Queue: 2 jobs
Job 1
Amino acid sequence: MSARRSLVWLGLTPEPEQELPAAVAALRSPAVGRPPSALVAAERHRVERLVLRGTQRGWLRYLREVTDLVVDAAGSRSTDPGAALLAGQVVLDHHRMLIGLPGAGYERTAPQRRDLERALACLRSRPAPALTGRTEPRSTV
């Protein structure tokens, strides 16, 4: 590792490391519902590799991909909003904390913060999914 390589950005990663793999796997999964465990494991491996061997630039590139998935989900009615809401809020919180770090990360992520805020507002304004099946209690008589 180079003495010039800054590791300050690693202090912001615990929540994204924990929350993003399953949420991103769900956003990447072609089927609505719980993503396949192999997809979650692959996403978790990717995040681990970025954090252990990557750079802040690579990490921010990954979060840009997640932002794009969230924005796409906000424009799609076929996507489960739960995973998009979680991923979007985690990335938005991360990007807001960049203001406390040296460098231009905060300024570079300004367009992503704007896009995430819009996408999250859209996702939150969606009506709750309609219940399927019987909604009235069955008579026991």
Job 2
Amino acid sequence: MSSTEESELVLLGAWASMFSSRVEIALAEKGINYKYIEEEHVLDNKSPLLLKHNPVYKKIPVLIHKGKPICESLIIVQYIDDTWKEGYPLLPSDPYLKSQAAFWADYVDKHIYQGAKLIWDSKGEGMQKGVEEFVGYLKVLERELGEKPYFNGESFGFVDIALISYYSHIIADERIGNFSIEKDCPKLFVWATQCMKRESVSKTLADPTKICELLIEIRKKNGLED
């Protein structure tokens, strides 16, 4: 067994990954110490450690706890909440409220990533349609948020972590797609601003400018950007 695997807690992640970020936010909220290993996050250059611990999907993030891997970011966040009881819970204890949190976190992952991809993977009329569809998904989430400071009510929790992890990418998509979350979804913008005041979030999320540069580089390779 390697020294890495002997560590109590190891996170395999990537700087530009929103899925990696949400695990880091959850760990920070719980005040948990861990070893972070940056993966190159490309299809043809997976580390042996990643391939060993996630042989099915071969992707980050992977949390390795006492040598045992936990994969898929939302599952990892729930595992963190179930395993470490320090601080306040990230998920509600009430079964119905917990089911609703799981529903909305799943909505985020089903629609926000693909919606954003519609923007940075298209141009012209296709991009405009992508922007409209993406903003529509965000408005659904804004209606669910309502007048609450956080999706769970007064406390930052599971759904907030699921969505705020996308925020740097959303800002980058704003720049590429020429739209404004502040204008189109003002309540969601206030929520995001509030979330960004949390140290767990502000110290974890990637610089939106770097994300934008990365997306533009991808767009150029795909012939979508001059």
